[in-house]
Amino acid sequence: MLTAPAGDGLARPLAYRWWRDAVIYQVYVRSFLDSTGDGIGDLAGVRAGLPYLKKLGVDGIWLSPFYPSPQHDHGYDVADYRDVDPVFGNLAEFDLLMTDVRRLGVKVLLDIVPNHCSSEHSWFREALAAEPGSEARARFHFADGRGPGGDEPPNNWHSMFGGPAWSRVTEPDGTPGQWYLHMFTSEQPDLNWRNAQVGAHFDQVLRFWLDRGVDGFRIDVAAGLFKHRDLPDSPDPAADARTRDSVNPLAWNQPEVHDVWRHWRSVCEEYTARDGRERLLVGEVSVPTAREHAQYVRPDELHQAFFFDLLGAPWNADAFHKVISEAMQDIAGTGSTITWVLNNHDQVRTVTRYGESGTEGSGLGAARARAAALLMLALPGAAYIYQGEELGLPEVVDLPDEVLTDPIFHRTGSRARIRDGCRVPLPWSGHASPFGFTSGAEGAKPWLPQPDWFAEHATDRALADTRSFWHLYRDGLQLRDSLPQLGEGTLRWLQSPPDVLAFVRGDGLVCAVNFGTAPVPAPVGGAPLLSSGPCPAGVLPGSTAAWWISDCTNP
């Protein structure tokens, strides 16, 4: 069997390497494509969109949660981990989807949510009906309150979505009772991973979906499963309240979590040993430093963990150089590959984030987003693309309060950092809402309203315009697939003008990005192989990225 060197220096079959430089497309199912006319995307819609994704050139898809759920947090409050919510279809429809992706050669990752479940999960309903100290409550974090009558929460922790991280229950006899922990909404009670039943349950969940043919899992809140045994007060509750980042060291990044990932890795390797198809674990790991991030992708733990530092970097050459260098030093050194992201379902869309003002994102924001995409695709490792980024969709920032569904808004009353604006259903065709998103009768409404200017970004228009974001992504993916210099490997930085970042991949593939606004001399001569905007020979315009094939020996 053909082999190729892995990052840890070991020779592995090529079949084992697919994830190391894969480009995965995140499908936010409820906003991708609606096949039933109810205004909510579904699994049949994903099936219908597969040819589009295959044409784009991605290696696989990551599906947001489609499990039975009351949808308090759009499926991240799971009531049953081994079924499909009727809103999205059923298990038979999921199996048809798996048949189609196999035929097309596309990988499938499922989103799994092990930190918390839904308050409607059978375990939590059982816990509410049980007595304090019972086995049913031991699966969660139940505790007595503080103060007179236990009227105050057990500690000062804050929810990631605003407000206290504790809610009080009414006991079966009708009296005020214990409190339970929820680091997100009150409808998402945190599971107690120190209880062996929790780990055993998720073993069954993993095997259920692996037996149905999935290629792996994106793991939600991968650093959060364990809490400090004593549940003490946070040392800086004010900081916890100011941010949705996982800053409380008592609630996140506990050392015991690594044993879970070692076990899950062994389960995946068991399936790989059967058929030679390596299953992937990619974690949502929010930790303070690249060095701590690297601990999650050691050879016997997660295969990958999203490197969010690139997403959070300001549009600045020095900032990008710093985060890329730290990742190459701390993460690639583990034998894993770095997993780059510029956006996801929790973030402001790239065009708007990089723009200066305007509901639809400025032209400068679009130029920077195109350049950032080309930069990401040139970096060593894997990359994840959030749906709609390939269309250059800006954030929808002016949704009226009455349509907002994000629990952050409803818990805080603030629109700061709410996520509805990046989740508006995709525009596929036409000049007016629903833009081909839903197959319902005329007048059918998507679950979030689409603005009129979505017409400019509709898929049919993007496919017809060779200058569109879609063609930039498609061309970049095709070149990434065909050029041996790209994908897995290392990079070498080049000397470059101020505000310009340039590096070499492999044998003479140069990527350069001008973070400024004024044109500068290109780091290499000649016409570029691919650029994010008009790029004359010998010139790198402002807010533009380009790839060159060159014999450049600039140290």
TrEMBL record:
Similarity field: Belongs to the glycosyl hydrolase 13 family.
GO molecular function: hydrolase activity
Signal sequence region: none
Source domain of life: Bacteria
All copies of domain Glycosyl hydrolase family 13 catalytic, residue ranges: 26-419
Xref: CDD domains: AmyAc_OligoGlu_TS
Name this polypeptide is given: Glycoside hydrolase family 13 protein
Lineage: Bacteria, Bacillati, Actinomycetota, Actinomycetes, Kitasatosporales
Transmembrane segments annotated in the record for this chain: none
